[in-house]
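Hi Q.,

Before the meeting this afternoon, I wanted you to have the 1,4-anhydro-D-erythro-pent-1-enitol prediction in hand. No need to reply - just skim if you have a minute. The sequence and ligand are here:
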Amino acid sequence: SGRAAMTETTVYPGGGLVHIKNPHLESMEEDILHHLDLGTKTHNLPAVFGDIKFVCVGGSPNRMRAFAQFMHKQLGLAGDGEDLADICAGMDRYAMYRAGPVLSISHGMGIPSISIMLHELIKLLHHAKCRDVTIIRIGTSGGLGKIKLGTVVITDTAVDSSFKPRFEQVVLDDVVVQSTELDKDLAKELLACSKEISDFPALISHTMCAYDFYEGKTTFGRLDGYLKRAYNAGVRNIEMESTAFAALCGLCGLKGECFCILPCIHSLTQPEGLVWCEIQTTQEPKPHS
Ligand code: R2B
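Predicted structure with the ligand bound:
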């Protein structure tokens, strides 16, 4: 299956370990992963998480719970998976569930929220000495162009609001720019997997990451050709986390991929003939079954 192919063909740099660019981490007496309610002194991280191979992240806690239950059943694990425990319940910020070698974690909305979660998740994988981990964002997004509703967009490159493959972050009083390339081989593997499932429309494209839902993402006010420029730059969907996700995965040697579903139930035709589809409900899409 596609899952087996993914583990067989993926080549991981640096012996497959997760690299942390903080030279002081190893000399710390204790590392508290505050928002995950985990820590190096309070938990035996290698024993609990050392065998994790896939990490799936997505916005909402309920969706990531449903995804873990789905994986539990798919992997044929003991029990019905209905009573999976939230590993991060003590902190009430993010929700984390595990199904065999798959970790399923919510990241909330937007770059600051996913960035906090990823910092702690990546340190968790490092402390746990996990090897050859693939991390996939399974998110929601708005679509650009006449794409069938429910299409899965597999991101090859995350771009910023100027359609550039970069993530600009303020680090103390500096603006640091990082690359946002994602793993293109993994994107192709995921597309191949989608073809094994009937009625699973999927495509590979650039994903644009906006900093805010109203000022950056919702484009009902954008009738000035911006969407056409985005489309011409190869963007087919817009969400709010992909550049941070791609930059952080790249920095730490993780194979990363963004995999966004268009939960479109409303569309607006632009004067240019482009269609902007945006989520208009609090109802999150159910994981594909
Ligand atoms: C998609 O949906 C959310 C905004 O409604 C945001 O997290 C995103 O990227």
